[in-house]
Structure formats: structure tokens, C-alpha cells
Amino acid sequence: MEGDETVTDHLHLFGRPDRLVRTVGVAVVLGAFGGLVTVGFLRGLDALVELLWTDLPNKLDLDSSSWTWIVPVVMVGAVLLGVARRLLGEHPVSLEQSIQDHQSNGEFDYRHVWQAVVISLISLGFGAALGPEAALMAILGGLGSWIARVIEADERGRIGLPYVGIAAALGALFATAGASVLVLSSKSSAADDARAGRIWWLLPAVAASGAGVVVYQYLGTSTQYFDLGVPDYDFAILDLVWAVPVAFSGAALGVLFFVVQRLGDRLLSPFDGRHVLQSVLGGVVLAGLASWSTLILFSGHQGTDQIVADYGSDDASFLFLVAVGKVVAAAVLLSSKWKGGRFFPVMFAGAAVGLATTLRVDEVREVVGIAAGMTGAVGVLLRRPVIAVLFMCWFFPLNALPVVVVAAVVGGLTGRFLGAVVEDGSPNRRIPAA
Questions:
Q1: Closest CA to 408 of 184, 243, 188, 234
Q2: Number of neighbouring beta carbons within 10 Å of residue 232
């Protein structure tokens, strides 16, 4: 009887239709909280970036875009990051590693949330060419696991609640409830998700993402953190033909990311445990590339907005080179244990190579180039075409959806074969439904 009473005391969530209303209600509340956390983290990050890259150089009458400022700031950041990693630990782990760890032990790390915040702010604030999604995943995933313990959620709730929190952060970050699909692993399939019960996460995850978007748009410093500002677009059948080679160009950058990161992992693994030296080696690469172009710095969301706004003023060769430079910088930084996510820099690289193509080939229109390039690159990371479509379609006009679908198939299948070979060492030949 005591055992039965213990079970009935749990908050039952996820996994059954009769729990759906309760689960969605909890998801909306947690989503709003996730939006608040996201706004707080991004405001803290923006304040640090403003201090290091605007206020200080202005006070010292120095040019923040010059190598004379970029090199010392990045290298100071590299040393601070190495010291922080040594004292506080390797927090946060990557977004993908977080998901794998959660699938292994059923919880996200909630004991080192503040360490993840501190280390992420150092890494991203000092110019890392990485996105904030890994930090937010660690924060919201950890807090979600902690909340699930506090409210004594049942087993499904302990597994699902952290993902709902993460979906809220991703929704606020990307300004779309479609970002909730990123909680699904690239190495699983629709059938795997159904068997594991993860399919039940999607509706509450979408609700949480929507709540996160609303909170961010109400409290954030802008209506959306990632705003492409693409021009009006009228669909034409021929665009689908041109979307294929452009998507392959974006997908090639995604594969390049995996190649460089795997090579970097091998070259830098002898320095494991030598935290400062390892971080400094990554900082040298970042400082060198950023001294050539400041577009290499930071996550790439502002850089993407900039190259879209400046379309026509940048040379195609420059856009291609900056796309490659961004991918190389992001991969090397992750290999040298700088902290951040890979989605933002890869999205920037896809947009840059797409715009480069439009400048070289008159038949490729601007929206087609951006949509196909970005989706092809992201598709390699996600490996699942349907998931790539559900995520990327929100960034473009509705009538560009066919272009996104074609590019998602190209990128997803490229990631499923070549990306898997490079990252995992063997291809996953089962093509999933999603």
C-alpha cells in the first residue's frame, strides 16, 4: 500500500492522451520560464559583448575591428576560458552530447548550471564563432531535471520536462515554435522516437516554444534574435532546379565542418588536461581568421543579417571564403573546448555560400540562394529531412517552402551518408521518415 501511495503522489506527465492537457499546461508555464531565462542570458551576453567590443575600445580610442584589438581580446578570453575550464570543469557539454547523456542516464546535469553559465559567457563574450544554444540547453535542461525532481514527476515527466524547457529556450532563440524539433536526436528515426515515447514530447514542446517566443518578443531587446529580413519572393518551378546545386554547396560546408572538427579532435587530443594551452590554440585560429574579417567573430546571427542586408555590395569570392572561414573557426573552437553551439555558425555559412552563388549565377534568386544554402547546411547537421523542413521553413516566406523541402532532402541525405561517415566513422544507411 505504501508503494502505491508513493506512485499516486507523483505528478504524471507525458505518454498518454489523458495526460495531454495537464502536460501542455505545465509546458506553457515552463516555456514562459524558459523564455525569461533565455532573455536574461542573452542580455548578460550582450552586455559583456558591448563592454569588450564597443565601450572599452571607444574609451581607449581604438578600432575594435582592427587586429590590434581583436588579437589581444580573443587571446585574453582564451586564457580566461582555459582557467575557468580547469577550475569549474568542462561545462557545458555540446547540445548533441547533452542529448546522448540524457538518453543514457535519464537526466540533464543540474548540478553545474552556474558553471555552465560562467564558462559560456566567457567563451561567447570574447568572440567565439559559436552559438548560444548549447549554453541555453545546459541551463534549461538542467533546470528542467531539477524541477522534475522537486515536483516529484513520474518517470516520463522526469525525461520529458527537461526537453520542454530546452524547446522553450530554442523557441525564444530562433523566434519560432518550429525550433522545438531540435530536441529530437539526429541519430534516431521517427520509429525510434515513437518507440521511446519521444513523439509525445512534440506537442508540449511546441507549446513551450511558443510561450518562449512570446516572452522573448515581449521582453527581449529585439522582436527576434535571428531575423534574416529576406525580400519578397514569388515562387517559380525553375527555382527547384537551382535549389539542388545551391543546397549541395551548403551541404558541403556542413560536411567540411565535420571533417575539420574530427581532424581538430585528433590533433588537439594530446592537449587534453592542459586547459589553458588547448583554449589558446583555438584562440589563435579564431584571432587569425577574425583579423581578416570580423564576420568570423561571434555566433553568426548578426553576421547573417548583415550579409543579407548588404546583398550586392560583397564580392562572391569574399562570401565564399568567409563561409569557409566561419565553419573552420567553429569546428576548431569546439575541438579546443571553447563552449557554444554549431547551428548558428553553420547557418551563417550556408547563407553566405548561397548569396555567393546568386552573385555568380544570375538565374539563382536571392531568397532561393539563402534558403537552399542555409537549409542544405543545417540538413547535414540534422540528418533528417522532415526535421530540417520543420525547423527551417519558419525563416522564409511560405511560398519558398518547396525550395526548403528540396534543400532539406539534399542536406539531410548528405548528412545521413557523408556526415555520418565523417562524424561517426560509418554511414547510417537507414533513411528515416523524419
A1: 243
A2: 7
Query: What is the rounded CA–CA span in Å between residue 426 and residue 434?
Result: 20
Query: What distance in Å separates the CA atoms of residue 420 and residue 415, rounded to the nearest whole number?
Result: 6
* Predicted TM-score (pTM) of this structure: 0.89
Q: Which residues pair with 341 in a beta bridge?
A: 131
- Pick from 51, 358, 411, 32: nearest CA to 213: 32
Give 284-343 pLDDT, tens digit per residue.
999 999 999 999 999 998 899 899 988 888 899 999 999 999 999 999 999 999 999 999
Helix, coil or strand: residue 391:
helix
Separation in Å, CA 15 to CA 290, 387, 415 = 48, 21, 30
Residues 6+ apart with CB under 8 A from 192: 198, 432
The span from the CA of 247 to the CA of 432, in Å, is: 20
Which stretches does DSSP call E strand in 149-189? Answer: none
Which domains, ranges and CATH numbers included, belong to the chain? 11-219 (1.10.3080.10), 238-424 (1.10.3080.10)
